[in-house]
């Protein structure tokens, strides 16, 4: 288990927790925003994403506790909003891309030090985020042809 306590692995876990909690905050806010716009189906999808990202955060917290580390998200990203659903989806794709890049880097580092337990842990999260990215891209692709390009929806904030 010595490899599992490598400081860089702990750094990857801390950064992952920050990114996952940032995603929770982002999706939760977007669910509320699109509810104001009257887009209930989109709101539910964002709520579902919130739950999935929360589950990832919980998994990371559990791993940190197993390693004897007190979990702490060091820096949450500010929520990004847009005036329409397409803009929100593009921002979420950017966030998911950052998560994918982070987990890919963590997997590669763990492979370089031979930490198979951490490889599996980060690979599972990587695969989940790739799946989220695919779903967001499909949603955006399906939405673009039918989404009214001229209407700008906004909430007061």
From TrEMBL:
Keyword Plastid: yes
GO cellular component: cytosol
CDD domains on file: Bacterioferritin
Transmembrane segments annotated in the record for this chain: none
PROSITE patterns listed in its UniProt record: FERRITIN_LIKE
Any single GO BP term: iron ion transport
SUPFAM superfamilies membership: Ferritin-like
GO MF annotations, alphabetized: ferric iron binding; ferroxidase activity; heme binding
Keywords, comma-separated and alphabetical: Heme, Iron, Iron storage, Metal-binding, Plastid
Coiled-coil annotated spans: none
Domain Ferritin-like diiron: 3-147
Keyword Repeat: no
InterPro entries with a match to the protein in the record: Bacterioferritin, Ferritin-like, Ferritin-like_diiron, Ferritin-like_SF, Ferritin_DPS_dom
Protein name: Bacterioferritin
Origin organism lineage: Eukaryota, Sar, Rhizaria, Cercozoa, Imbricatea
